[in-house]
Input
Amino acid sequence: MNSLTDYEIQQAILPWVTAELKMSITSTIKDFKRHTEGWSWQTYTFIVEDGQKRKGVAIRRQPEDGLLAPYDIVGQYNLHKALLDFSKVSIPELIALEMSNTILGMPFYAMSKVDGIIPVQWNPDDPAVFPTPLARRQLAEDFVSNLVSIHSADIKHFEFLKFGIDSRECTNIQLERWERSYAESYLHDVPLIRLAFRWLRDHMPDDTRLGLCHGDYRIGNFITDQSKIVAILDWELAHIGDVVSDISWAGLPLFRGRSPLFSHLCTRDEFLGLYNELSGRHVSAESLNYWNVFNLIKAAVPHIRAAKAFEDGRSSDLRLAAMGHQVIHTIKHLVVALEELV
Output
């Protein structure tokens, strides 16, 4: 399917999407776009047009392999539906799930296309996103507000995520996942990473609060209409766990470079102040430091997996080869984080 042209993909998807939308078989596809910003799921957006009737559609196709394999498209669809039904999170409306491989070569699901801009960390001063300091502040407030909404969702509606009975067990589940992924992915063992895993097992914080975690909450994973966030994207790392993990992730150096701003939106103190005010909960320095170490490993492992996928010949995408070099910077940040704590 990756070898199909955009025209061939449109021809394959048109009968399916018109049937799901109950639109005429004479409908056409306009403004088709294959999105290349992401590194995992494959995303396409387009407009289905039937005379005066128009509908924007986004398709999320499960990859054969990728940085975060194995993938679970049914779990992703169920999570998306639960968020729509049981949370106040900004997220696109769903259209349908397709499990057959006969249309696009792999299962996929469709949702309503949300218009707007996706801010990215490599363009932190994009005037279309941040025309004024006030606009940046307003976006920061909305960013934190949506995070509080995610963490406030009743976890009983997300039992399909298969979480532990308490915070320690939930953290262990995450540790085991990433330790296993590392063991399966490295070309050359990095002793520092194994040391960090041991440190994490020995220093689990006690003041944890379980909640729904996005898992990849940062700049690059939301759409804004220049006044507010209209959709939160990329939920493949969602899980039940310590909600501070999401706060730490948003502030990683990977997503802010040399900027002091969490995800190029606001300072650490401003972020924590907003979060504490909106959630009514205090985030301790100890907990944030713990998750900084954890998340640097979590960021490094997909880079390592990417390099192995390229080395093994499972992908010819040169971006994956480049990630093998970029992981050095993540490990450097991990060294700094551990030096401050050990």
Notes: The two ends are 48 Å apart (CA to CA). The mean pLDDT is 90.
